[in-house]
Amino acid sequence: MNEITKPGLLGLPAESRPREKLLARGPEALSDAELLALLLRTGIQGKHVLLLAQELLDTFGGVGGLLHAAPAALARIKGLGPAKRAELMAVMALARRALQHGLREQPLFNSPVAVREYLQLQMGGRAHEVFAVLFLDSQNRLIALEELFRGTLNQTSVYPREVVLRALHHHAAAVVLAHNHPSGEARPSRADETLTQTLKAALALVDVRVLDHFVVTRTEACSMAEMGLV
Fold first, then answer.
1. Per-residue pLDDT averaged across 37-52, rounded?
2. How far apart are CA 18 and CA 8, in angstroms?
3. Are the C-beta atoms of residues 53 and 40 closer than 8 Å to each other?
4. CA neighbor of 183 nearest in space, from 147, 158, 215, 217
5. Domains of the chain: which residue ranges?
6. What pLDDT sits at residue 27?
7. Nearest Cα to 192, choosing from 182, 180, 209, 201?
């Protein structure tokens, strides 16, 4: 069965086809599976593209998990050839760049929703813990985001000296700290609070302010500043 005749969207009634729904009613009218099916275009023998799309979402824990999936994990999925994998990675990159561009153009906290969306897109779907720093200029605009540490994070595995050096490298006036909780629990732990205060003290020595520390999951980004912990 070739690419054209594989179970795809043309087999559906016109009113049920994701492309027609998208054009007639807008993207809000489509489910995650329908939007993903538009990217995939075709399923595999015995599996309609909408079913393939839903199985992918279920396997990777939703859109965020799928778009953060490692290339090797995607390559193990039957029906995801190189072209489909490349399209998924391209969509993810475009989404990140669009959000990043907005954060570079205006003070970060002029759009707190965009900050949360950017961090969730960047980190929320990771299967392991990642510690990142958003380096900001004197106007609180984004200079860069760097992932500095991976693995189980605590006060001994995140090195304040490295964070300070990177802040100096970027000539940052302020930073926003962020790390993810793969468990899905967004509330910061006592260790997170201790780490925040340690980094805040270290960065204060070089006149760099810590504005916030976000704990990121697939579904939310919890601000420690809003909780009075920064």
1. 82
2. 11
3. yes
4. 217
5. 9-94, 111-223
6. 74
7. 180
Angle between helices 82-105 and 112-123 (to 10 degrees): 150
Which helix (H) or strand (E) segment holds residue 133: the answer is strand 130-136
How far apart (Å, rounded) are the C-alpha atoms in residues 132 and 134? 7
What's the one-letter identity of residue 62? G
Q: Which one has a higher pLDDT value, 169 or 35?
A: 169
The answer regarding whether domain 111-223 maps to CATH 3.40.140.10 reads yes
50-54, long-range: CB < 8 A, 24+ apart = 50/9, 50/12, 50/18, 52/79
DSSP 44: B
What is the separation, in whole angstroms, between the first and last Cα of the chain?
58
User: Mean of the pLDDT values across residues 66-74?
Assistant: 76
Helix-strand-coil percent breakdown of the chain, rounded to 5?
A: 50, 15, 35
- The tokens of 67 are what? 């778009």
24: which 2 tokens? Answer: 């007639």
At residue 135, φ and ψ (nearest 5 deg) are: -95, 130
- Rounded to 10 deg, the angle between the 18-25 and 32-40 helix axes is 120
User: Which of 191, 135, 186 lies closest to 162, judged by CA?
Assistant: 135
For residue 118 the two structure tokens come to: 């950017």
Contact 43, 79 (CB under 8 A): yes
